[in-house]
Amino acid sequence: MAGSGNQLDHQLTMAAKNKLMRDVLIEEVFRQAQRNRNILFMSADLGAQALDDFREKLPAQFVYPGICEQNMIDVAAGLAKSGKTVFTYAMASFITARCFEQLKCSLAAMQQPVTVISVGVGLGYDDAGPTHYTTEDIACMRTLSGIEIWTPSDEESTLEITRLCCERPALRYLRLERPALPAIYQGTFADNLEAGFCEISTGQDVCIVSSGYMLHRALQVQQELQKAGVDAGVVDLFRIKPLNSAALLATLNGYSKIVTLEEQVLAGGFGSAICEVLMDEDAQLPVLRLGLPDRYFFENGGRNHVLEKYGLGVPQLTERIREFVRKPVPFSDSDSLERSTVVAL
Amino acid sequence: MVAPAETDPRTSAGRASSQLDLDMSALIERSAWLRKELFRMVMRTKKGHIPSSFSCAEILIALFYGGILRYQKGRPSDPLRDRIIVSKGHAAMALYPILADLGFVPAAELENFTRKDCLLRMYADPSIPGIDSISGSLGHGLGIGAGMALAAKQDGRDQRAFVIVGDGECYEGSVWESAVFAGHQRLDNLVGIVDRNRMAIMGPTENLLQLGSLEDKFRSFGWETVSINGHSYREILDVLERIGETGGRPLAIIANTVKGKGISFMENKSEWHNRMPDAAHQEQAWRDLEINSITN
Question: Which domain CATH number covers A69?
Answer without folding.
Answer: 3.40.50.970
